[in-house]
Amino acid sequence: MDLLKLASRIEALWDSSIVPALERYIRIPNKSPHFDADWEAAGHMEAAVQLMAEWCRQLPLPGLNVQIRRLPGRTPLLVVDIPGQRPDTVLLYGHLDKQPEFTGWADGLSPWEPVIRDGRLYGRGGADDGYALFGSLAAILALQEQQVPLARCVVLIEGSEESGSIDLPAHLESLGDAPGTYVKVRV
């Protein structure tokens, strides 16, 4: 594996695709259910999960399966499944809900308007945890391009982490034990 080539590929994808997607994500005031009781009617959670799912579907990852799983009254779960060449399965986790806006932002910075300053991206959710999906898939793509054999990778991105992951157990239960389809995780 060529580590310089790997880093270069991830950096190129980060600059060309991930940063613009994160900027769009930051603009979505997708507060966690604990902070926005009307989250479903507001539509911000839906906008965030759609943005992430659409970004995933544009990647040239063979066998990529992207699903938005829904349960009544619960935040959505984004499931990204990438087949591997090895017999194991790796679970990668992140969340797309955000804390509410607070005071105390530095001059020129605000929660819902992305700003790049000194090479750093500022805005609500960009560092916690909006990048998780993008970073995970960038690494997988870069490794696949170097023909590094990987285990199957399942990425779960939930919508209620900032509220204590209240919806995650129900989603995990709904995934069931379907052989070869999902990873069974107990919380």
- Distance, first to last CA: 35 Å
Overall average pLDDT: 91
Major beta sheet summary: 4 strands, mixed
Radius of gyration: 17 Å
* Count of separate DSSP helical elements: 5
Strand order of the largest sheet: 1-2-6-3
Strand count = 6
Task: Enumerate the spans where pLDDT stays under 50 for 5 or more consecutive residues.
Answer: none
Q: Approximately how much beta-strand content do the residues carry? A: 15-25%
Helix content: 25-40%
Going by helix content, strand content and strand pairing, the class is: alpha+beta
Shape verdict = flat
Secondary structure: elements and pairs:
Elements: H1 3-26, H2 39-42, H3 44-57, E1 65-69, E2 77-82, E3 86-95, E4 115-117, E5 120-122, H4 131-145, E6 151-158, H5 168-175
Parallel strand pairs: 3-6
Antiparallel strand pairs: 1-2, 2-6, 4-5
Describe the structure.
The protein has helices at residues 3-26, 39-42, 44-57, 131-145, 168-175; strands at residues 65-69, 77-82, 86-95, 115-117, 120-122, 151-158. Helix 1 packs antiparallel against helix 4 (131-145). The strands form two sheets. It has a four-stranded mixed sheet, covered by helices on one side. It has a two-stranded antiparallel ribbon with strand order 4-5. It is α+β, with helices and mostly antiparallel strands. 35% of the residues lie in helices and 19% in strands.
